[in-house]
Amino acid sequence: MARIAWITDSTSCITQEEAKQLGIHIIPVSVIMEEEVYKDGVDITPDEFYRKLETITELPKTSQPTVGEFSDFYEVLKHDYDCGIAVHVSEKFSGTINGSRLGADMADFPVHIVDSKITSEAMKQLVLKGKRLEEEGIAPEEIASRLRGSADQVKGYVCIGSLEQLRRGGRLSGASFLVGNLLQIKPILTFDDGSLVPFEKIRTLKKAESRVLALFEEAAARTSVNGVSVVYSGSSEKAEDWLHLLKEKYPDITINLGQLSPAIGVHVGAGTLGILWFED
């Protein structure tokens, strides 16, 4: 069997501790706050980031790993592994995946690149699925192919904490959808082939959140769902309520809870809440 290095970036919400336990290699995105540069998940935790976000006046920024950083990263890995499988944040969100591809070429290390077409906890679920396939003795090329197929089946709906941060960060397509009085309209966003796009405009936050829950329930009634996760930024209270509610209603479905990493929080702010899953 080929020795496979499992690689992802820090937007996957896999902590350093989890990565060590699971044998996953994480290359961090950089977060720039008030002229300080932090390696996401290394120099700053999500809790620390969201606390800082409450006090700063200038919106933070992110910087993807450079091709050189990826090359150095893969130079180290190639001594212990025959190849790699890298699951990265959607190519529509970031150039991280291209940096990974070029860095692997520079290091002359064979890496099968998988565009998750999403971010956060759903990326983690793709990596974990891949590791299960590895345990079954599936070849690396086939694992990567299956993961790409799963990425095509990813679904998700979110209520964004800060639309202004999302707009200024350039991560929201179809921005004309949001023109109007944003104080009264709470848009639900969804994922479309790797892009984050407007789905519906709802008049109140409470109704928007109820609608997201209803959209998941419709999917669960219509088809088989897996890799389900409730994702949030900042306070976990409402997300934990959702998790409890869904686990009670769907005891046979594994449902996870994931806090959005600082690299994602830069673009969506605190107070984001959503559900992500895969459909068979």
Can you give a write-up of this model?
The chain is of the alpha/beta class. 39% of the residues lie in helices and 26% in strands. The protein is built from ten helices and 13 strands. The strands form three sheets. The chain has a six-stranded mixed sheet. Strands 2-1-6-7 form a four-stranded parallel sheet, sandwiched between helices. Strands 4-3-5 form a three-stranded antiparallel sheet, with helices on one face. It is globular, with a radius of gyration of 18 Å. The protein starts with a strand and ends with a strand.
Compact summary:
The chain is of the alpha/beta class and 280 residues long. 39% of the residues lie in helices and 26% in strands.
Question: Top keywords for this entry?
Answer:
single chain; 280 residues; alpha/beta; six-stranded mixed β-sheet; four-stranded parallel β-sheet; 10 helices; 39% helix; 26% strand; globular
Question: What's the topology here?
Answer:
Elements: E1 4-9, H1 16-22, E2 24-27, E3 30-33, E4 36-39, H2 46-53, E5 61-63, H3 67-77, E6 83-88, H4 96-107, E7 111-115, H5 121-135, H6 140-151, E8 154-159, H7 163-168, E9 186-192, E10 195-202, H8 205-222, E11 225-232, H9 237-249, E12 255-259, H10 262-268, E13 273-279
Number of extended strands = 13
Q: How many whole angstroms does the radius of gyration measure?
A: 18 Å
* Biggest sheet: strand arrangement: 10-9-8-13-11-12
Largest sheet: 6 strands, mixed
Oligomer kind: single chain
Q: Tell me, what's the shape?
A: globular
Can you give the helix content as a percent range? 25-40%
- Given the helix and strand composition, which structural class is it? alpha/beta
End-to-end gap: 28 Å
Continuous helix count: 10
Give the percentage of residues in beta strands: 25-35%
What is the residue-mean pLDDT, rounded to a whole number? 92
As residue ranges, the low-confidence spans are none
Can you write the helix and strand succession as a string?
EHEEEHEHEHEHHEHEEHEHEHE
